[in-house]
Sequence to fold (429 residues):
Amino acid sequence: MSAGKESKAWFKRAEKVLPSGVNSPVRAFRAVGGDPLVIANAHGATITDVDGNDYLDFVGSWGPLILGHANPTVIEAIEKTARLGTSYGAPCRPEIDLAEKVVSLYPGIEQVRFVSSGTEAVMSAIRLARGATGRKLIVKFEGCYHGHVDHMLVAAGSGLVTQGLPSSAGVPEEFTGLTRVLPLDDESALDELFSAEGDQIAAVIIEPVPANNGLLLQRPDYLRHLRALCDRHGALLILDEVISGFRLGPGGAAERYGIKPDLATFGKVIGGGMPVGAFAGSKELMQELAPQGGVYQAGTLSGNPVAMAAGLATLNTLEREDGWTRLEALGTHLEHQLNAVIADTKTEAAVVRIGSIFWLALDTKDPPRTAAAIAPGAADRYGRLFTALLDAGISLAPSAYEVGFISLVHSIPELDRLCAALQTEFARR
Ligand SMILES: *Cc1c(COP(=O)(O)O)cnc(C)c1O
Fold:
């Protein structure tokens, strides 16, 4: 069931008026080949393309849809709120409700400011960190993604040079010159950088669960070391929980690993499928934001009532339905079954899984902990796997480096269907 007649026709139209036919690059299927499906609607665990083909979906709009597509409670909240007006540009009840919820669920934060995307959350948190510390340098890690803000589009320099080089055209070197890039999973690289420049580091930003370049689960000891170094040198620790926040549990990765960030960034699940991002921290830090403080930050549609209502309905449902516990159980089941498939077919692959996030590391038996440790041939092999699964009616992310997401509406038989399809593919080789 690769792209059918209608999908192809629509995508031809798209290519005329949208660059590469898309509004976000991975959607174009360049990494896996073929034309993308054009989606008509989605309900529960199923997405349906414009040709009327159904797919069992493990993309979940790249993470937000933890309750599945078109969850009735979320849709009802959206409809009800939209009837009261779609935007006021003034304080409103839904943003206060969601802020209270976020502050009550996530450890160690007192205030939150809402924005409209994860990128915006990261951009603003970094500005706040620089403003609050009066320092300039930002440290990030190879294999972590923090959205497409200029100074985060950075690749590691060669050799001992940690100074970041732009990883996108259109980003001047001067813009990335204040970003330092380190490998993950490497305490000594951290120690070295902090002893050289520790007093100039405003903040270290990390995905505590790096899930944008495969799933590079970190050692808790490493994360604790990072926390301690930041404390010793007066640098802020920003946990980018745009994927992990409200997905791994009410307190995200911070709660999982017992690490308290100075600032946390959120997106995806927090908006329940609507465009929402947020950043949060202590009242003392957040007071540095305008209008009280000197760090400017604003947004016409920030705290949008309809989006806030969708986020709140999502978090309330997760709480009410014991969602995180159930997701952990579903994740455990999938992990066991996938491991059985790998053992049975003797294929070269490893299952990496935390909570409801999963990833297949191909061509290796050891889950990689750094971007450099990912097998170079894995992308080609993944492309074939992706296409075969799509033909079997299963939608995985169209890139070897993207993770899969389990939602509350995935049933055990649906997880088993994914495993059976993979079994067929692995056995074919
Ligand atoms: C998705 C993501 C972002 C960017 O969020 P957008 O809403 O796509 O701008 C930032 N950080 C992490 C960890 C992400 O997964």
Summary: Residues 117-119, 122, 145-147, 207, 212, 240, 242-243, 267, 277 surround pyridoxal-5'-phosphate (CB under 6 Å).
